[in-house]
């Protein structure tokens, strides 16, 4: 099984280092010196990591054979891909590889079918499940503990406890002024409601 573990960013300095956008929870394992990674596009690889270091909160890598800024710039936007055993799990409990979550059935805690995970979107603030509903529409579910309450790989399902409005259009709207209508509110504000 192949997993995207990083995307190469811009060159850093003049000695062939590049910034990388890390896409793995295990960079110390997947992006360590000596690691040989496939690439997308495939013609640019494989690449062997020569050195790695953190600078100003960003991971910088240098690859064997890349010794200057021009060579580093030529690698920009290439995806780095690691081979992973399909039976392997991340080291941290409660973490999963994308391929383990794909195609899981999504149900609410009450057992109502929501759909099937077709994609996982990795955003800076959180990950999102892209879920295809039975009618073909899609809904985005934040992969956070408060909403995704259980992942059961044996049963091939993800259980969610969605807040109102997340998976349907019937969000509950509470008024701070009780049962007053919008017209009464407008009259009160303009002074015309005598």
Defining key terms:
single chain, mainly beta, six-stranded mixed sheet, 4 helices, 11% helix
Please sum up the structure shown.
By secondary structure, the protein is mainly β.
Number of separate helices? 4
Structural class: mainly beta
Fraction in beta strands: 35-45%
Number of strands: 12
Helix content estimate: 10-25%
Please write the string of helix (H) and strand (E) elements.
Answer: EEHEEEHEHEEEEEEH
Tell me what the structure shows.
This protein has 194 residues and is mainly beta. Helices cover 11% and strands 39% of the residues. It is built from four helices and twelve strands; from the N terminus they run ββαβββαβαββββββα. It has helices at 27-30, 69-73, 98-101, 182-190; strands spanning 2-12, 17-22, 36-40, 47-55, 58-63, 79-83, 105-108, 113-122, 127-132, 138-142, 148-152, 157-160. The strands form two sheets. Strands 1-2-5-4-3-6 form a six-stranded antiparallel β-barrel. A six-stranded mixed β-sheet has the order 10-9-8-7-12-11, with no helix packed on it. A hairpin with a 2-residue loop joins β4 and β5 (58-63). It is elongated and about 60 Å long. The model is unreliable at 170-186 (pLDDT under 50).
Topology at a glance:
Blueprint: E1 2-12, E2 17-22, H1 27-30, E3 36-40, E4 47-55, E5 58-63, H2 69-73, E6 79-83, H3 98-101, E7 105-108, E8 113-122, E9 127-132, E10 138-142, E11 148-152, E12 157-160, H4 182-190
Parallel strand pairs: 7-12
Antiparallel strand pairs: 1-2, 1-6, 2-5, 3-4, 3-6, 4-5, 7-8, 8-9, 9-10, 11-12
């Amino acid at each position: 099984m192949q997993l995207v573990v990083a995307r190469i960013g811009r060159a850093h300095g003049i000695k062939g280092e590049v910034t990388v956008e890390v896409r793995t929870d295990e960079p110390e394992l997947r992006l360590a010196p000596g690691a040989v990674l496939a690439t997308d596009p495939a013609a640019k690889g494989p690449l062997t990591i020569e050195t790695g270091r953190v600078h100003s909160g960003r991971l910088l890598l240098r690859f064997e054979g890349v010794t200057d800024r021009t060579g580093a710039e030529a690698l920009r936007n290439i995806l780095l891909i690691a081979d992973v055993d399909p039976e392997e799990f991340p080291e941290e409990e409660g973490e999963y590889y994308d391929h383990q979550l794909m195609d899981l059935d999504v149900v609410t805690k009450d057992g109502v079918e929501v759909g099937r995970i077709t994609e996982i979107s990795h955003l800076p603030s959180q990950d999102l499940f892209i879920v295809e509903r039975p009618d073909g529409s899609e809904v985005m579910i934040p992969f956070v503990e408060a909403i995704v309450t259980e992942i059961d790989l044996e049963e091939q399902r993800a259980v969610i406890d969605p807040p109102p409005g997340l998976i349907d259009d019937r969000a509950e709207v509470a008024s701070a002024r009780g049962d007053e209508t919008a017209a009464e509110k407008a009259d009160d504000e303009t002074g015309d409601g005598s």
